[in-house]
Structure to design on (1126 residues):
């Protein structure tokens, strides 16, 4: 029941929202819907934590042998929770904004939420693909309708990019389906398929490119800074906080269990690629003058690290990755909220045009400093345990270059400190300037949203075990796949 | 059964509470209340620390106090646990004791700040003490690392406390980033240990069974990585340049963080891991020579600095070098002993300089001071005591700890000893140069400043007096065996943790001679400084070698040229060329190619039946041809 509700609530309320005449009502309705989803999601993690509540399977497109199969398991539950937590925060932080055709705006946002829920829950490949598109399409409209000046070409690029990825994935899915014994799309059948190692290679790339574009991983990332910059900030928050995790999640759910051999063999190529990407993005972030682009490049760097941790293919890396996906989502939404407040108040995002805000808005400054420090994974904030385990995972990976990979990953966190602290210094510290002399501190709804984020940061920073317990089973299950691969390859060598 | 010492969690928890109360309530609490809360929690921690010290001294040493699992994933367990033993207890006393005095001092020193900022200041200071306590109490490398980065954060926050000044903020960033470089090495050392041993707990890592699992290369690499971490936090070559800049922070912060406690974290860490270090000769040699080089380099720079705090900052870097040198020689107890005495006299000197700066209305340039002895008797006398202590004249505290270090160097080689002695003589010289320029001669500042000169209030002078007393008597816990049997109480107290280093290989008569020699030379240096600087008059700009020293050997400029600027330019290159032209250019190129291709294809749809028929025929031929060749 729980997984179905998680998809249905935003889907139905989203469709209803289209028919509201009044923008304010639409906003309240969206908040109400988001809170309802959050409640269900929390229930699924606590009270209703029994298999019978967490799985659902019905006939759907029986002609195609696809069924409506969803399940809330260790792999997806933190991301569902993230998706559920993100929406109320985003809506709260945008409470002061009034969008043109507000009903459509929130309707599309909720539809995207339903799509993402489906992605995290589906155990049927066709349903997965369907939800993948359901999540993306509202985003195109949101960017192209409510975006900034250059929204049309940027959205077009975003669309083409992700669409190409989706198509490649669809080909992969159809190929796999055709080869399963029962010709079904179910996740289990895909896993049982056990393609021979040489056949996994091409299919691996069909899926990986789709996921890599979504994350994005260098060099497939250029759609992202433009899109983040041009999209309305509320949309950007969802894009960067939740949606990019679809790519990483896809790796864990569909790539590794189904094509373990190819995943293992390509790890030596993909790990350095994503780590170079992380360093590359961090270096560019150091030279960014636009707050949104800075956060965008910082996000690319963090995602690069996460991708590398995934391809470390061991328990520590998986555990770190899974909690980091949640925590990165929370932290980056926090950063966007601060960016949004700054831009709304001063009408610019240029770092060089701002300064001294801390004097006039100490509360905002305090929130920013905490969130920024969490973003660079200071201990006792939520990102530290995740990064620690991810780094440990990279270090313990079987490749001979594991020490150098860890050093590369480490470089990106040093650069991370550089651009984050410089941003704080230039925008918030120093003397006030003409523009910021009359700055106001933040409003109640913003305080609430940021307060929740800071609370999550500290609770999960001091007691990360809370989440690690949830992800332990999944991490060891995926790891077993790779243990098997490593074992087999070792025997072959002999 | 529960051990009574399980409540040690209160020691860090109280400062954390102080941080929360002052941090959240800074707009609502009065300044006096903020001061009372801020200092009160540290006093309570200090009282608890004394109680713990008594317990430990009485032989009640609990196993690791385990609270909850911080990270527990199958093979890897990292408990949130504290280790209470002789070593950590000693640091607890220094941190909370000196910390408390500095909090009290701050109440007066910072009284001109607005209540809101006053609260912010005390909350940062409390947070610092909390982090520092975590660092020394942690029972494993990860908890230590949490404290390790925590103190770095507080250092960053406090250096940039006056955040309106961008120069200060830059200094704060520099401190944080340089520390992060060291922290990365620390982290990799942790991963290395996890990878080899699957544990990070001190008690498990240092167990003989686990140590035997580590190859010599492992041990060398791990110890070197940890040492790189230490060079960041404890300001050694090559990561020392942040510390002098850190003087941008309020003076009590310099005293607490950048002299007495945080910067000694590296020494604590190596002393904690001495079992590992003793197993790698290469690392020990590197630690020795880095310590020696830093001690010398910083001492030479201190000779020509004119900012009162900068002199003390370089002096701190140099003294930390002495401590590392002792560690490298295997004299761990001597290093820890010097940490303690240094905490007393360097905190005293910094607080004294704060008193001077306060009286001078914010002036820090010693060339504008002079003759302050008449106006500020207590500051003058206590500062003199601090100078004598750091110079190492018996029976002041610095003498005993420095003597222990010199002796350990002598055991290594007489050549090493003479270089260390030379650095010690430089110390005496630059400290008394500072002393005479500031306190003797005639006043060289403005009339306004002269009129304003006054002794500081009691909240400032009382901590000075207490620290002065400690600087005088603090050395008596480590009287060398030649003077009194069992006089080296600190070594015997630490001996359960740090086994005493080897047997004395120096005869008593030789030891007397060495002490006599060093003391005599130090006295000569002081007299030399007295002759040169008692009637100091402003001179023209430095030239030649003096200029090199005044400009700190141009190391900052070198780092800028070699690391900072190229990195900055490289980032710009990536941004404007690679990202925009190459990567995105390729992507757009693909788009354009598709666009162009489809435009060409569109031309095929001309609407003329003839061309369609032609195409059909051609494709059929092609299909047959392909079929034909494939069949074959």
């Amino acid at each position: 029941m729980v997984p179905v509700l998680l998809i249905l609530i935003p889907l139905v309320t989203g469709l209803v929202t289209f028919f509201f005449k009044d923008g304010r009502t639409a906003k309240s309705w969206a908040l109400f819907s988001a809170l309802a989803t959050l409640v269900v999601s929390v229930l699924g993690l606590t009270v209703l934590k029994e298999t019978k509540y967490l799985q659902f399977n019905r006939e759907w497109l029986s002609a195609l042998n696809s069924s409506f199969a969803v399940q809330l398991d260790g792999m997806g539950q933190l991301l569902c929770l993230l998706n559920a937590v993100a929406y109320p925060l985003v809506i709260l932080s945008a409470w002061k904004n009034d969008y043109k055709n507000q009903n459509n705006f929130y309707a599309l946002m909720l539809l995207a939420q339903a799509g993402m829920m489906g992605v995290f829950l589906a155990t049927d490949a066709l349903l997965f693909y369907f939800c993948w598109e359901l999540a993306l399409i509202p985003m195109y409209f949101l960017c192209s309708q409510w975006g900034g000046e250059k929204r049309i070409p940027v959205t077009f690029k975003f669309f083409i990019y992700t669409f190409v990825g989706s198509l490649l994935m669809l080909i992969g899915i159809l190929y796999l389906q055709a080869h399963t014994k029962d010709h079904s799309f179910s996740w289990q059948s895909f896993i049982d398929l056990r393609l021979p190692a040489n056949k996994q290679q091409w299919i691996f790339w069909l899926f990986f490119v789709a996921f890599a574009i979504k994350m994005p991983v260098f060099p497939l990332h250029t759609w992202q800074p433009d899109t983040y910059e041009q999209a309305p900030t509320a949309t950007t928050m969802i894009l960067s906080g939740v949606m990019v995790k679809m790519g990483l999640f896809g790796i864990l759910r569909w790539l590794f269990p189904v094509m373990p051999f190819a995943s293992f063999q390509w790890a030596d190529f993909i790990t350095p690629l994503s780590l170079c990407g992380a360093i590359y993005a961090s270096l560019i972030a150091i030279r960014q003058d636009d707050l949104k682009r800075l956060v965008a490049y910082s996000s690319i760097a963090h995602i690069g690290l996460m991708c590398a941790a995934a391809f470390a293919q061991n328990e520590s890396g998986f555990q770190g990755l899974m909690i980091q996906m949640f925590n990165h989502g929370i932290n980056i939404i926090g950063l966007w909220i601060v960016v949004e407040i700054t831009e709304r108040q001063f009408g610019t995002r240029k770092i060089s045009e701002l300064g001294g805000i801390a004097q006039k808005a100490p509360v905002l400054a305090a929130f920013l400093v905490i969130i920024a420090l969490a973003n660079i994974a200071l201990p006792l904030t939520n990102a530290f345990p995740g990064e620690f385990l991810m780094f440990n995972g990279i270090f313990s990976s079987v490749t001979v270059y594991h020490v150098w990979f860890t050093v590369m990953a480490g470089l990106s966190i040093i650069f991370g400190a550089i651009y984050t602290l410089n941003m704080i210094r230039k925008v918030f510290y120093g003397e006030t300037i003409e523009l910021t002399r009359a700055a106001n501190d933040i409003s109640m709804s913003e305080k609430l949203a940021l307060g929740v984020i800071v609370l999550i940061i500290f609770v999960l920073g001091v007691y990360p075990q809370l989440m690690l317990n949830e992800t332990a089973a999944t991490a060891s299950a995926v790891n077993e796949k790779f243990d098997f691969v490593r074992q087999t390859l070792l025997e072959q060598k002999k | 059964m529960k051990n009574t010492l399980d409540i040690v969690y209160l020691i860090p928890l109280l400062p954390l509470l102080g941080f929360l109360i002052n941090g959240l309530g800074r707009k609502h609490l009065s300044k006096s209340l903020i001061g009372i809360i801020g200092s009160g929690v540290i006093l309570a921690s200090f009282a608890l620390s004394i109680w713990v010290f008594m317990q430990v001294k009485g032989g009640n040493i609990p196993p690791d106090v385990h609270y909850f699992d911080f990270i527990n994933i199958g093979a890897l367990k990292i408990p949130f646990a504290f280790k209470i033993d002789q070593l950590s207890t000693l640091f607890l006393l220094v941190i909370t004791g000196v910390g408390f005095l500095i909090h009290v001092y701050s109440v007066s020193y910072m009284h001109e700040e607005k209540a809101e900022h006053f609260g912010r200041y005390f909350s940062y200071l409390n947070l610092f003490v909390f982090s520092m306590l975590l660092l020394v109490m942690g029972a494993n490398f990860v908890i230590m690392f949490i404290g390790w980065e925590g103190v770095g954060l507080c250092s960053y926050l406090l250096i940039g406390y006056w955040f309106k000044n961008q120069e200060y903020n830059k200094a704060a960033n520099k401190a944080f980033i340089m520390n992060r470089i060291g922290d990365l090495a620390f982290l990799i050392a942790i991963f290395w240990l996890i990878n080899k041993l699957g544990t990070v707990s001190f008690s498990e890592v240092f167990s003989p069974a686990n140590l035997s699992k580590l190859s010599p290369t492992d041990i060398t690499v791990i110890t070197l990585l940890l040492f790189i971490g230490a060079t960041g936090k404890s300001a050694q070559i090559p990561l020392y340049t942040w510390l002098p800049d850190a003087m941008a922070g309020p003076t009590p912060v310099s005293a607490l963080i950048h002299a007495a406690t945080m910067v000694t974290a590296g020494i604590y860490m190596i002393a904690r891991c001495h079992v590992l270090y003793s197993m790698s000769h290469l690392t020990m040699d590197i630690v020795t020579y880095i310590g020696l080089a830093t001690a010398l380099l910083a001492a030479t720079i201190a000779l020509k600095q004119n900012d009162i705090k900068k002199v003390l900052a370089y002096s701190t870097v140099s003294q930390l070098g002495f401590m590392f040198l002792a560690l490298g020689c295997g004299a761990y107890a001597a290093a820890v002993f010097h940490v303690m005495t240094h905490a007393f006299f360097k905190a005293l000197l910094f607080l004294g300089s704060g008193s001077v700066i306060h009286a001078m209305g914010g002036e820090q340039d010693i060339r504008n001071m002079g003759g302050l002895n008449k106006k500020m008797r207590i500051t003058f006398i206590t500062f003199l005591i601090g100078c004598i202590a750091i110079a190492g004249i018996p029976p002041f505290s610095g003498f005993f700890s420095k003597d222990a270090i010199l002796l350990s160097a002598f055991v290594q080689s007489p050549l090493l000893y003479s270089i260390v002695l030379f650095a010690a003589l430089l110390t005496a010289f630059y400290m008394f140069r500072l002393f005479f320029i500031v306190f003797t001669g005639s006043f060289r500042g403005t009339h306004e400043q002269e009129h304003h000169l006054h002794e500081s209030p009691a909240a400032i002078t009382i901590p000075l007096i207490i620290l002065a007393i400690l600087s005088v008597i603090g050395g008596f816990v480590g009287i060398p065996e030649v003077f009194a049997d069992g006089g080296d109480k600190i070594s015997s107290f630490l001996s359960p943790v740090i086994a005493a280093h080897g047997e004395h290989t120096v005869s008593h008569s030789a030891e007397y001679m060495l002490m006599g020699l060093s003391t005599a030379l130090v006295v000569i240096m002081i007299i030399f400084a007295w002759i040169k600087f008692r009637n100091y008059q402003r001179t023209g700009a430095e030239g030649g070698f003096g200029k090199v020293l005044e400009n700190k050997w141009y190391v900052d400029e070198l780092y800028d040229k070699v690391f900072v600027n190229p990195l900055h330019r490289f980032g710009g290159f990536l941004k404007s060329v690679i990202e925009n032209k190459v990567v995105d250019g390729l992507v757009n190129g693909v788009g354009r190619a598709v666009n162009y291709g489809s435009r060409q294809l569109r031309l095929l749809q001309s609407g003329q039946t003839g061309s369609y028929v032609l195409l059909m025929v051609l494709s059929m031929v092609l299909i047959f041809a392909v079929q034909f060749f494939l069949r074959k």
Summary: Chain B has a mean pLDDT of 90. The two ends of chain B are 87 Å apart (CA to CA). The first helix of chain B runs from residue 10 to 24.
